[in-house]
Amino acid sequence: MTLQRSLYTLAGALLLIGFIVLGLFVDDRPPPVDVALADAFHGQYARPAGQVAGLVTNVLGPVLPFALGAVLAVLAWRRRDLTVLCVKLAVVLVLCRMTSLIAKPVFYRERPREFPDLSYPSGHVVAVACTGFVAVLLCAWTRPHLTRLAITIAVVATVVGAFCRVVLGVHWLTDTAGSVLAVGGVGLISATGLGLLPLPRDPA
């Protein structure tokens, strides 16, 4: 394993450790920042701001990984030379998306207000973050000149999605932070293991 691969794996492991530690830390009692934001946005879900946030998260949510998965499937079908790459990216996408499904029953955290399902980490933010992560990898391997733009869009979309979930009162701020840590950790480890990281100097 090269030094770069080792560093990516180490970074992923540290992010996963951070995710677990944060989950354990906030499991019993939300920290002051969570409480302050929950109080600040209390009841907003029934007001115009909450309605807008709800519309945004209808797009920036669980639908995104499915949409990217469809793009990868079409790309693999039309470009046989990219089939292996698309399969690897799809594996990373699935593994990252599964973090919220697996972790929620483990931490069993309640939401800021009464709402179905558990709270840590946010499934919506996981969906946005994992879509962004894989989209960046896709650009880096196929359209490197678009990588920086993809990174910018991914970061902005994740932040906006996280903010909307807090405004709606269905997640604590630390739920959204945990989502990013989980996706970053699983994403870096799986992408490195599949040979997607480090990135090629001369992308296909």
From TrEMBL:
Instruction: Write down what this protein is called.
Output: Phosphatidic acid phosphatase
What are the protein's UniProt keywords? Membrane, Transmembrane, Transmembrane helix
Query: Record's superkingdom?
Result: Bacteria
Coiled-coil region(s): none
Record domain Phosphatidic acid phosphatase type 2/haloperoxidase: where: 85-191
* Transmembrane residue ranges: 7-26, 52-75, 82-103, 123-142, 149-173, 179-199
Tell me the InterPro entries matching this sequence: PAP2/HPO, PAP2/HPO_sf
In its UniProt entry, the species of origin is given as Amycolatopsis orientalis
Gene3D superfamilies to which the protein is assigned, alphabetical: Phosphatidic acid phosphatase type 2/haloperoxidase
